[in-house]
Amino acid sequence: MTNTALTQINQATTSRVSAAFKRAQSEGRAAIVPYVTAGWPEIDDTERIVAGLVAGGADLIELGVPFSDPIADGPTIQRTSQRALDNGMTPDKALEIVRRLRASGIATPVLFMGYYNPVFAYGLDAFARACAEAGVDGLMIPDLPPEESDELLAACLDNGIHLIYFLAPTSTAERVEAVLQRANGFIYLISLTGVTGARDQLPTGLGDYVVRVRRHTQLPLAIGFGISNRDQVVVAEELVDGVVCGTALLTDLELARPDELEERAAGFIRMLRGD
Fold first, then answer.
1. Do residues 167 and 175 touch, judged by C-beta distance below 8 A?
2. Do strands 31-37 and 61-64 pair parallel, antiparallel, or not at all (unpaired)?
């Protein structure tokens, strides 16, 4: 990492993402970070779902950009991603969704969750620049190892957006150090080994895992993979600064009629917050 890159990482603490975590912390709670697949159930539904999530009190939005060959997604997110691809969703259309969200007045941070292949094909700097211009606050790329991420990290920081890094319970000391050298915005802690999906309870040993990372960084820590209900949020917010919920939200929205999506999304976030 160059000195310039490290300076940019330090400056990234003043972003909209960081402000969202600070606001939640000042209210004595974890930031709520819902995931929704862009272009699902229909392309035009995404904006209404996001509006509902924001109305319900979501602090950040994780917007999934579907890819044909995911490696971290469980069956629910795979199913919604395939539906979105069948609907014709592309990275450019995901960017257009964010442009329309910003034009409608939504200021909540939006993070793209996606895979490296489409980003590489688009062009690293071109994609980071397009994201910044559309109003995307950062990228989350689970199949990009930190040791191979410096080119994309530089493109993101040059364009004023985050590249969010992941750690897992199995991460070695060397991998933790590689992430900590580059981390900006917050660090996404995967709660367990395996793919995304709702679980009945959080895994044992979660506290030790969080402490192992926390002792080395002042950045917010958010935990994901398995969060599905208020009880889990209550447990998690004793340990971390944010909770990510995707599968349980999508499963709930699958039960909604098209005209119910916005209110159903809002109600789910209110449930997670305990409102």
1. yes
2. parallel
CB contact set of 127 (below 8 Å; sequence gap of 6+): 91, 119, 155
Instruction: Just list the catalytic residues.
Output: 62, 73
Task: Show the tokens assigned to 67.
Answer: 């890819």
Cα gap 8→169, rounded to integer Å:
28
Print pLDDT tens along the chain (275 aa).
Answer: 555 555 565 555 558 999 999 999 999 999 999 999 999 999 999 999 999 999 999 999 999 999 988 776 778 899 999 999 999 999 999 999 999 999 999 999 999 999 999 999 999 999 999 999 999 999 999 999 999 999 999 999 999 999 999 998 888 999 999 999 999 999 999 975 443 434 455 556 678 889 889 998 999 999 987 788 999 899 889 999 999 999 999 999 999 999 999 999 999 999 999 98
- The rounded radius of gyration (Å) of the Cα atoms in the chain is 17
What domains, with CATH codes, occur in the chain? 3-7+15-270 (3.20.20.70)
DSSP string, 194-256: S-----SSPPTTHHHHHHHHHTT--S-EEEESS--SHHHHHHHTTT-SEEEE-HHHHHHHTTS
Whole-angstrom distance, CA of residue 195 vs CA of residue 102? 31
CB 167 within 8 A of CB 223: no
pTM: 0.91
| SS3 label, residue 77 | helix
